[in-house]
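Dear H.,

Thanks for agreeing to be a second pair of eyes. The structure we're designing against is below in token form, covering all 248 positions.
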């Protein structure tokens, strides 16, 4: 789910953690979080780390580990959104193992997870903010193993009709059928993503900022909590409600 709106942060963070190393990839189900979520304590990123998080729903029960995601606040000027406002971004980290970022009790076969929060607020001040006077979206997802029954070479490699579980990917002049990673998604959003795209509103959230600490390049470390109701799921739970709680 990573896109350009977080590109600056990954470059900046990568420079700070260069040479710090990372942990080997591992499973994300049924274990326990490490103390730091894989975040190198001497990296300079501790002020931006999410301290804890949980998500519960009919088909996903997950823990966001300490240091498994970043939280920061920045002006909206770079996004073409409303002037004189700010965006809270929370996103899982780009390094270390998935087991350092997430732990899943459900689904038992989850291989990775993603958390994306992009919420506009009125000002860079402590206070309480809700989706009713905001724009943005919140997404959490669990990625599952590709079923062994998926065979993307069963039909012609460049056919527009790929076999079940496959989709065309790659260069325009030479795409091929590749496996599609199954995932379970839950989302809350307003009628605007703050970037010009519209959507049908669903879910809700309440953001409480207790402190805002100015940082580099107009981006501030923030501390507080976010609670949200998300809709989604898979199969019989496709219109289910999930509850997200994040501390940062």
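And this is the sequence the design step returned. I haven't edited it by hand at all.
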């Amino acid at each position: 789910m990573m896109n350009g709106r977080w590109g600056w942060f990954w470059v900046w963070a990568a420079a700070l953690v260069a040479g710090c190393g990372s942990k080997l990839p591992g499973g994300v189900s049924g274990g326990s979080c490490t103390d730091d979520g894989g975040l190198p304590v001497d990296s300079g990123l501790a002020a931006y780390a999410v301290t804890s998080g949980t998500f519960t729903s009919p088909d996903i029960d997950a823990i966001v580990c300490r240091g498994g995601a970043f939280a920061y606040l920045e002006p909206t000027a770079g996004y073409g959104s409303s002037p004189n406002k700010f965006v809270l971004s929370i996103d899982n980290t780009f390094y270390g193992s998935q087991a350092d970022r997430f732990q899943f009790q459900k689904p038992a076969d989850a291989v990775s997870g993603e958390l994306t929060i992009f919420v506009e607020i009125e000002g860079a001040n402590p206070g309480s903010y809700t989706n009713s006077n905001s724009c943005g979206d919140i997404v959490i997802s669990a990625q599952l193993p590709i079923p062994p029954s998926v065979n993307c070479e069963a039909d012609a490699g460049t056919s527009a009709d790929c076999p079940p579980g496959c989709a065309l990917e790659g260069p325009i002049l030479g795409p091929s059928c590749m496996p599609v990673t199954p995932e379970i998604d839950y989302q809350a959003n307003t009628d605007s993503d703050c970037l010009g795209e519209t959507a049908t509103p669903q879910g809700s959230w309440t953001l409480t900022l207790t402190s805002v600490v100015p940082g580099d390049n107009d981006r501030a470390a923030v501390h507080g909590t976010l609670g949200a109701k998300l809709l989604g799921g898979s199969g019989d739970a496709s219109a289910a409600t999930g509850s997200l709680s994040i501390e940062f």
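Two observations from my side: Confidence is low (pLDDT under 50) at residues 6-27. The longest strand covers residues 220-232.

Warmly,
E.
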